[in-house]
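ping. complex inputs:
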Amino acid sequence: AQSVTQLDSQVPVFEEAPVELRCNYSSSVSVYLFWYVQYPNQGLQLLLKYLSGSTLVESINGFEAEFNKSQTSFHLRKPSVHISDTAEYFCAVSDGASKIIFGSGTRLSIRP
Amino acid sequence: NAGVTQTPKFRILKIGQSMTLQCTQDMNHNYMYWYRQDPGMGLKLIYYSVGAGITDKGEVPNGYNVSRSTTEDFPLRLELAAPSQTSVYFCASSYEGPTYEQYFGPGTRLTVT
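pong. complex structure:
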């Protein structure tokens, strides 16, 4: 069985500061890892994903995540956040079969 | 393309009533999913479908039913609504399996009183 744990339910940061949202997973098989973002009153949107190959994956809006197999982690980072990054972020894991397991979410709040 | 559409946006039900949440996608995706989102709990999978005529249970299927008669539509039926079913419901679809991006609808906010 797979599971995913997001270690922080809320992360407040100042604008232009760096941020890291932590995600750990457990799985007995090969995994595929995802970060989804949910802006207020909207559905989720894919931010980035790791399927294979390079362990560092990037999104178009400056976020990146690194797959660390030994630490079973897939933390999300951004070197400088903007007010528009205010949202809830969900880490998710799949074994490639039929479904994805989502974490409980991390609410990122940006202070000016 | 409209993507994934859900109706209604909001609904208030009395205990014991029934209703159907509608979900339609126009991307010709084979896979469709229903999730519920409760505060601080993330998303829990209710049911999913890998194609027309094929459905399977997710993590929290009790109290719900689904059908998939066409590729486009995946309605979720609530029978005998209970307060524990108060939640935000999201429908999603993807091209093939879960390694493909899931596209989410805007959600239906349901309150059962």
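The interface with chain A takes residues 4, 31, 33, 35, 40-45, 48, 50, 56, 58, 90, 92, 97-99, 101-102, 104-107 of chain B (CB under 8 Å).
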